[in-house]
Amino acid sequence: MKRIIAHLDMDAFFAAIEENDNPEFKGKPIVVGADPKNGKGRGVVSTANYKAREYGIHSGMPITEAWKLSENAKSQGKEGVIFIKPNFEKYELVSHSILSIIKKYSQFVEVASIDEFYFDLSFAKSYKKAKDICLKIKKEIKERERLTCSIGIGPNKLIAKIASSYKKPDSLIVIKNPQKFLENLSIRVIPGVGPKTEEILNSLGVFKIKDLQKLSKGELYKLFGKFGLALYEKARGIDESPIIEEHEIKSIGEQITFEKDTRKLSYIYDELEKLCKNIYKRFKEEGFDKFKTITVTVRFKDFETKTKSFTFKKPIANLETLKLHSLRLLMSLINQNKKLIRMIGLRIEKLG
DNA sequence: TCTGGGGTCCTAGGACCC
DNA sequence: TCTGGGGTCCTAGGACCC
């Protein structure tokens, strides 16, 4: 049985929602992300709308850099960027609405992130019919939420995913011949190939997927281990991974970057206590009542990042124990050196 | 003035058990 | 002349994704 898989990716999701909610933003460059604080803010761009992308702004970029690009644009008589803090509760509601639309058309849906979904359309039996279904989904999302999305359709999740991002925004692409489709694409479009893997492959003269296809399984295994074997398959458009309808929660964590690097212990303790309380609250809300492992992270001024974790012999259930042990782990990390601290984080795992 | 916050998965060495 | 060997858990770090 040949599968037909679709991947739906919302276009500039957070920014598009904000545009809809604030008609006065229409047609203007918008950045959802950290507060730029006149060029002194800490954090990055979460989503830039397409107008802001024309200024060279993109997600992941330091917010200070986006702010500078906006100032430059203003000095050239162009419109300044509107900076907005993200409202995840709001985006979560829209995400649920999108999911409910997709579920009207497909029984098997995977929520890959707040703005990405995989779904199975094998029952349609042909790419033609699968495409018609996706056109209807796009139309319904447009009518109900006034948002556009890009959809890729192919024989598996890998191809569907690459296809959905091939011609954003507002696209719908069917890939009938994965081999040919992949040939001239950059290795970077393969999920799991990030900056490090790209650099290693580039150094071997591998830039496009057709170059990658020339490396043997053995060579890739030597370079990347288990991931290398997966890469061998991906380069050929092969991917048998299933649609996962329910993702189980494996860990719950939070982190906070301070406005200014500090070593003021009373302040750092207070922040750690807040992390404990928030995480514990979410842990309870998710219906868990036990955890076994605590991991504390400290990022120093120079960005060096250390973690320390501790696993209890028996599962733990109370907030006081979390506070006590996270403080103990934090202290041992802080006492490793005298550097100012930029960020602290806390995560609990082995939930039950 | 660089570099968020929420996650998952993998690796590698050492401990420990049978 | 010998220092097994496989499985699993814990810990720290790193790559990657949105």
Structural features:
alpha+beta, DNA-binding, four-stranded antiparallel sheet, DNA polymerase, domain 1, 4 domains, 352 residues, Alpha-Beta Plaits
Account of the 3D structure:
By secondary structure, the chain is α+β, with helices and mostly antiparallel strands. The chain folds into 4 domains: 5-13 and 88-177, Alpha-Beta Plaits (2-Layer Sandwich), CATH 3.30.70; 15-84, MutS, DNA mismatch repair protein, domain I (3-Layer(aba) Sandwich); 180-234, 5' to 3' exonuclease, C-terminal subdomain (DNA polymerase, domain 1, Orthogonal Bundle), CATH 1.10.150; 251-349, Dna Ligase, domain 1 (2-Layer Sandwich). 40% of the residues lie in helices and 22% in strands. It has helices at residues 13-21, 50-53, 63-75, 88-103, 127-145, 157-164, 178-183, 195-203, 209-212, 217-224, 226-234, 265-285, 319-334; strands spanning 5-10, 30-33, 45-48, 82-84, 109-113, 116-120, 149-154, 172-174, 251-262, 291-300, 305-316, 341-349. A 5-stranded mixed β-sheet has the order 5-6-1-7-8. Strands 9-12-10-11 form a 4-stranded antiparallel β-sheet, with helices on one face. A 3-stranded mixed β-sheet has the order 3-2-4. It starts with a strand and ends with a strand. The mean pLDDT is 96. The structure holds a DNA duplex (18 and 18 nucleotides).
